[in-house]
Fold this protein.
Amino acid sequence: MPRLELITTNFTAGEFSPRLRGRSDLEKLNASAELLRNVVIMKQGGATLRPPLDFLGEIKVSSETARPIDFVYSRDDAYVLVFGHLTMQVIRSGAYVESSPGVRYEITTPYTQSMLASIDYTQGADTMILTHGSVVTQRLRRFAHALWVLDATPFAPSAMAETGHRSATVSMTISATTVGAGRTLTASATFFCDADVGRVIGWGGGAATLTAVGSATSATATVTAAFASASAAANEWLLEGTPQSACTASAKDPVGIAMTLTLAAGGWRVADIGKHVEINAGLVRITNVAAHNALVADGVIVNELASTVAAPANAWILKGDVWNAVDGYPRTCTFYEQRLWLAATAKYPQTEWGSRSGLFFNFTPGPEDDAAVAKTVASDQVNPIQFLVSAASLIALGYDGEFEARGGIEKPISQANMQIKLQTEYGSAAVRPETVGKEVLHVERGGKALRSLFPLQVEGYDSNDVSVFSEHLLRGGVKFIAFEQRPESVLWVGTTDGAMHALTFNTEQKIVAWASGATDGVVEWAVTIPEGSADVTYCLVRRTIDGSTKRYIEKLNWQAERGWHDSRVYQTDSPAKVVWDGFDHLEGETVRAHADGIYVGTFEVVGGEITLPRTALTLSAGLGYDARIISQAPEVGTGSGTSQGQTMSTSSIKVRVLETIGMNIQGENVPFSQFGPSLLDQAPQPFTGIKDVLDYGWADGESPLELAQEQGYPWTILSIVRTLTVNPG
């Protein structure tokens, strides 16, 4: 019966999946645990109690979800923007910003409750750009703590392409839906122009080429692809391409000069005002069209033309706004290399657009290196872009793969040199990623794995699954991630079942350590902002209070000294008192309490108050949560083979702790208190050192070891030493 000592020096491998119970060969086994509940693995390797969630306030409408978004102007001016149904409120320094005493500052937004999860955003200085596929791209500006303006981003111009013609008021019918010539197209109001002959019109999978225009409401066409329906409502049909007529520009330069564009056949529409014409290597913005089916349009030169020679049909292009209510608006955005980048509309799901260099709202194309950029990700299948990320390079996270965009050798991206290359093919879920150093942490397609996309030393990127050893924590699917760089380099990972897990991610120390999390409720969202020298994470938590659904903004408080509870309220008062109010948000619930730094038990909230058994000057109270560590089954050499499945005796346990008050081992309380006349009624003091537990006893096979903190005191475990005797049987 060999007698051995086994030491666990750290927990840097995190909480292992049950699928790994048989992998006693893994080097990481002794740095892992079967359970790490409500703890955070420190960068140095120890496990510490996860911080409490301090109560800040109820959201505007608790029955509706909301979404917090981070806005960071500086460490002194960092905000959490709480977007609700068509509203936005502001939090700064742990409190709601008020427009007047007791009245929260609020502005209106175009985002409904159902849209909130799909908002993406990027920020530069005091301006934030917000994108959603169904809403005009918005610009949010901060002028003061209680003065914010949200409006449509003033693109001048927006991205453009050969969008064709459609109408928001005109419906269309065709005399016969089958393939063949001589079909009659009828518009419900003025639409057709003489120069439409040769263009293709379509809807519902059908297509027809116009062969003659009889009037503004009637045309003849040849059907080349059968129509599913003989009619189409407004905006459901599209006349593709550019008017089929020669076009002559009256001037070629300079930029800004007024000029005219003349067609050989009537083709301009009043709806063309504001569109652009690409002709003779230049660009002209249409400023006026006098009438429908006009021959002449007034314009202004945007990019100089090479000549004024007449451009024949198909040698010039009429370009309209790519981003519109029918084709959709960009779903994602970022700033990179002095450009604003947007990507992924409903019609162009794989296209990226970059603004002019240094002119974030100007998407004018041109031959210059600083002109706007538009490129489509080449893929052998539809691969919609989920997110754009500004990292070591411009990254597009697609549904089926990850792409890197680069310019020329040591040159920034331009239209001429932009190259988009596939890096990996794991795909990305619709969960906003986080950048940690040079790595991009994103949720894999399917939502149940977390990957790290990291740059290679020479060129390109590779990817690692950083959740493979703890996959059980993500089985419900990931809803959000939020990264705290300080104090512990933690990525908070929220799952659709309401849990919020802690991933300590530090590539310098090669730490990827997961710890599971739980609270009495559901964490729906979390964001992190800097406050002073540390990062602070704010959470939207849904709780059931006295039978009713409540949604609260609560923040993780690493600075709390003791009395670590959720939905926590910390108060001081003088003189000392027994009855404490301020707990209306926990009405009818049972809370744990620390009075003057001492755990005094649990109490029911009645009328927003709790009554203590004695007077106190300070109180910390809230919903209790326990922290637990269950060690791995020991694996030691016995001389005859493995110790797995053998009967074991643990004769002693030595736990090294740091600034800790209180601990249970296997359900038994480990004494930390000291006694003496000078210590009566004094708060217990943190202990640093080794705590011994003797005569743990025999156990078949697993020899489990459970450590717990159940009173909300500080608790940090640095190492565990077990003295084992193995009986091979």
In short: Residues 452 and 464 are 5 Å apart (CA to CA).
